[in-house]
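The instructor's notes for this session suggest beginning with a concrete chain rather than abstract definitions. Hand out the sequence below and ask the class to guess, before any prediction is shown, which regions might be ordered.
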Amino acid sequence: MNIMDVCSFSVLFEEISCGQNNNISPSSKCLPLQSCDSNITAHLASNHIATTSITSEHDLIKARVGLFNDTASDLIICPNHRFLLGKGWRSSRLCMARDPLQHCSKRHKVSSATLSVSQSQQIWQKYGILIPVGAGFCRQCRGRLTVKLQTDICNVDNTLTQAIHEPTHSICTMTKEKGLSQSTVDTDHSQGSLWMPNSQNSYTSTDTACTDNTDFISEKRKYLDSFLASCGLSPVKKQMRGDWTTSSDRTRNDYLKKAKQILQQVAEVPVPGQGDYLLNEISCLNSSATCSTTSEKMLEVLCTAYNQTTDWV
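After discussion, reveal the predicted structure:
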């Protein structure tokens, strides 16, 4: 039997031809899509796709063809479609945005953050165009994408804000009663909807069980991970337990690298597509303040030395 007569993706995704592929095993046999369970960790990492948003090879393939919420239990896939839609898919080095989201000449290099599952799904539902998970946008088009999807984000933020300010409810109570779990603000919404609990409103009740600082840090980390997932970045995998000043250079470099990723994405929220400029301005302000403080201390030391000197010979 011709392999094209069996593969469901010969119709679902005609851009790729059915056939064999020696880069994957089995190389010449069609399989049920649900049985595709190869390790995709390296592929997700290289394409900056959050491991919390896609957990299996068949889910990755489904997302790449727009079957986000479909169980696809009866689909059959050939080796070529499996490889080129899964682990063998490669992002272009140039911006992959398409009309009406494209605002560049297609010659701009992509930024480090890629299209998340939620963003790909929203674009598919809102504009009817399929841009694959892991696709790279240039900074300009990524900023425009944030603005385009801002309406949906604002609706989510308003819902969460109303829930936060309901009287006599602590953050823990709301989490149980309103279902404000990580999945609520994780992959259903796009970049920019970072919500944090207000300490004054959330921790004034004497009945709450969340007064412990560890619980508060855990809450903050959960919502930060949700934000990172919406940006197509991996979550915070570890938190420092020891002293920064006594940590090794390698350890500090790991935390610095992750912190830089986080700050870059946060800066894109108030100034879409121009986050780097904002971070540079903040860095300059901090440098100026440090320089001014150092100069004042140096002047104070010199004055003290001058006043205490009795012999200049």
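Then share the key points. The radius of gyration is 25 Å. Residues 163-211 have pLDDT under 50 and may be disordered.
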